[in-house]
Amino acid sequence: MTFDPQLLKLFGGVLGILLVASVIGWRLAKRPGDEKWRATVANLNARTAAWWVIAAVFAGSLFVGKTGLLVLFGLASFLALREFITLTPTRPGDHRTLFWAFFIITPLQYWMIAEEWYGLFSILIPVYVFLFIPVRSALAGDCERFLERTAKIQWALMVCVFCLSHAPALMTLKIAGYEGQNAKLVFYLVAVTQISDVLQYVWGKTLGRHRMVPTVSPNKTWEGFIGGIASATAIGAGLWWITPFTPLQSAGMSLAITCLGFAGGLVMSAIKRDRGVKDYGALIEGHGGMMDRIDSLCFAAPVFFHLTRFYFT
Amino acid sequence: MTSLLLTGTVRLLCGVRAHWQGCDPVPRQRIYFANHTSNLDALVIWAALPPSLRTTTRPVAARDYWQKGPIRRYLAHHVFHAILIERQKVTAGTNPLTAMIAAMGTTDSLIIFPEGGRKGGPEPEAFKSGLYHLAKQKPDVELIPVYLENLNRVLPKGESLPVPTLCSLTLGAPLRLASGETKPDFLERARLAVWNLRNT
C-alpha cells in the first residue's frame, strides 16, 4: 500500500488543531469564574479530550483504508442503532425483528458496500428492509401500535445504518484522476461536518442571541447557524486541494454538507426533546452518545455521496 | 480471558453503566439483591463490578437453568463461580440458605434475586423470605439494593437471541435488619428500596 502524503499533512493539521484547543482549554480552566463558567469550561475540556480519541481512531481507520472505514462506521451504526432503539418504546413482539435489524441487516448493508454493489446497497434498506420489517413483526402476532412500531424501526435503520453507511461508501466511487485517493473524501466529509458542528457551537456560545427553534433546541441560534455554516464552508473550500473539486465546487459541496449537518442536528434534537432526554447516551465523555456526535454526519453523508457520484464519476 | 470476552459481550449488548448511588465499589462482604427481569441479570451485575470485586462476588442462580448444556455449566462453575440452587423440590438437604451461607464464608459476596422467578412487569413482586434469613444470620454483611433497568428488552422471557439495548444498574445505600422488625415488614422495605432506585 502506498501511503498518500496529503493524508499525512491532514493528520498533522488535526494534531495541531487539537494541541491548540487543549492549550486554550487548559488556560481557560485556570481562569477564575463562577459555577456556570467552570461547568462550561469543564465540558469543553471533556469534549477536547474525547476529540483526541475520536481523531486517533478515525486516523487509524483511514490509514487501513476501505476495510478499516467499513469496520469503524459499521460499529458506529451498531452503537447508534442501540441508542436509538433504547429510546424507542418497542414491544416484545418486535424482539425478533430487532434481532434482524442489528445482526443481519446492519452487517449486510456494510457487506454490500464492501462488495461495491451499488445497485443493492442503495436500495437494500429503503426497499427490501422496508418490506421485510412489517412482515416479520406481523408474524410475531402483536398488532398494538403496529404502524408506529414498524415506522420507528424503519426510521432507525434509515438514519443509523443506511445514511451513515454512505460515508465509507465514498471509498467505492471511481473518480477519474483521483484513483486510490478516496480516503481523503471521507476525511473531507467528516472534517467539514464536525468543524461545522464545533463552529456553530462556538459562534452560538459567543454571539448567539436569536434562537431559531427554541422548542426544539435552545442552543441553536441564527448567529451560530450563519457564523458556523459560513466559516465551515470557507474552511471546506480551503480544503479543495485534497478533493477532485475546484475551490468553487468545494465551497458548494461544503455548503451542502454543513446545511445538511445542521438539519441532522435539528431533527435528532426534536426526537430527543420528544423522548424527554438531553443526550442519546453517555458513550463519549462530554459529547453524550454516539448519535449525538454523528447526527449531522447521518444527514450529510448520503447527499454528499450522491452529489459526488452524479457530478464526478 | 473468558471473563474478558464475557464482560465485553455484555458491554456490547447492554452498554452497562453502574451508578453507585448509596455505596462505593469497595471490597466488603455484601449481598447485592436486585429485581429480576431477564436471564442476563446476574451476569450484568457481575460484569458491572470492578474486576477486583468480581472474583469474590458470586451470583446465586437456578440450577435447572445453569446446569443445562456445557456452555452454561462452564460459565457458571468456572467463570462466575455461581452458587446453584434448587428451585423445585427443595428439601432439608438442598436448602438454598445453607448453601449460600456456606459459600459466603467470611470473604465472599452474593448476588441474589429475592423475587425468585422472572416476572413480567417492571415493579418487583413480593420478595421471598431468603433475604430476611440471610440478614438475620449474617448481621455484619451489607445488604445492597440494586435496580436493573431495561434488561428485559435485551432478552425477554422465552427468547434466546438478545437485542442490544442500553441498560442501567443503580446501587443504593446498604440496608440493615432493624431490631424487632418483622419478616413481612423487612421484606417489603427491601423491595421498596430496590423499586425506589428507579427514579434516582
Describe the structure.
The complex is a heterodimer of chains A (313) and B (200). Chain A has 313 residues and is an all-alpha fold. Chain A is 75% helix and 0% strand. Chain A has eleven helices and no strands. In chain A, helix 7 packs across helix 11 (290-312). The mean pLDDT of chain A is 93. With 200 residues, chain B is an alpha/beta fold. Chain B is built from nine helices and seven strands, in the order H-E-E-H-H-E-H-H-E-H-E-H-E-H-E-H. Chain B has a seven-stranded mixed beta sheet, with helices on both faces. In chain B, helix 1 packs across helix 2. The interface between A and B is medium-sized, with 17 and 12 residues.
Outline the fold blueprint.
The complex is a heterodimer of chains A (313) and B (200).
Chain A: H1 5-30, H2 35-64, H3 66-87, H4 95-114, H5 118-121, H6 124-139, H7 146-169, H8 183-207, H9 222-238, H10 247-275, H11 290-312
Helix pairs in contact in A: 1-2, 2-3, 3-4, 3-7, 4-6, 4-7, 6-7, 7-11, 8-9, 8-10, 8-11, 9-10, 10-11
Chain B: H1 2-14, E1 17-20, E2 30-34, H2 41-48, H3 51-54, E3 57-62, H4 63-66, H5 70-79, E4 83-85, H6 96-104, E5 109-112, H7 130-137, E6 142-149, H8 151-154, E7 168-171, H9 183-195
Helix pairs in contact in B: 1-2
Protein traits:
heterodimer, A: 313 residues, mainly alpha, 75% helix, globular, B: 200 residues, alpha/beta, 7-stranded mixed β-sheet, 36% helix
